Amino acid sequence: MPSLSLWLVPPSESPLTAAITRIITQTLPARFPNLALPSFHPHVTLASNIPSENVKDPQQFLDNLKVPRAGDVRVCFEGLEVGQEYFKKVTIRVADDGVKALARECRAMGVKGGDEKKAEDWVVNEYQPHCSLL
């Protein structure tokens, strides 16, 4: 069954966007020339594995999210991590306090049927905010 993810993407004109894009598209591929590496926009995943049948109209789904004010969403990088999972081979760990309210809302609406308690449990016990590099 197809699923969706919601990403928090930095502004396109941000120096951070340019720097992370350069790492994803140039620096890491040069270090691993024998690998076919995916290319993607810099982002922090807010929610994943959202069943596509839960999102009949993507724009309406986004419009219905109760999102925090832009100033209340802060992405603070904590460190570089190397992992085993496909989507977490090389990541920059993100402090969860800056994005957890937004992730909780996205998870509640997309996966937990609006159940804020289940979404909060997910944020506390499972959510590992990160910016993927590889």
Description:
By secondary structure, the chain is α+β, with helices and mostly antiparallel strands. 34% of the residues lie in helices and 21% in strands. It has a single domain, classed as Cyclic Phosphodiesterase, Chain: A, CATH 3.90.1140. Strand 3 (77-82) and strand 4 form a beta hairpin. The longest helix has 17 residues, at 15-31. The two termini are 25 Å apart. 21% of the residues are buried. The model has no long low-confidence stretch (mean pLDDT 87).
Q: In what order do the strands lie side by side in the largest sheet?
A: 3-4-5
Mind telling me the C-alpha Rg?
15 Å
Envelope shape: globular
The CATH superfamily title: Cyclic phosphodiesterase
Range of strand content: 15-25%
Number of structurally distinct domains = 1
The helix tally amounts to: 4
Proportion in helices: 25-40%
List keywords for this structure.
134 residues, alpha+beta, Cyclic Phosphodiesterase, Chain: A, three-stranded antiparallel β-sheet, two-stranded antiparallel ribbon, 34% helix, globular
What's the arrangement of secondary structure elements?
Blueprint: E1 3-8, H1 15-31, E2 44-51, H2 58-64, E3 77-82, E4 90-94, H3 100-110, H4 116-125, E5 130-132
Antiparallel strand pairs: 1-2, 3-4, 4-5
Helix pairs in contact: 3-4
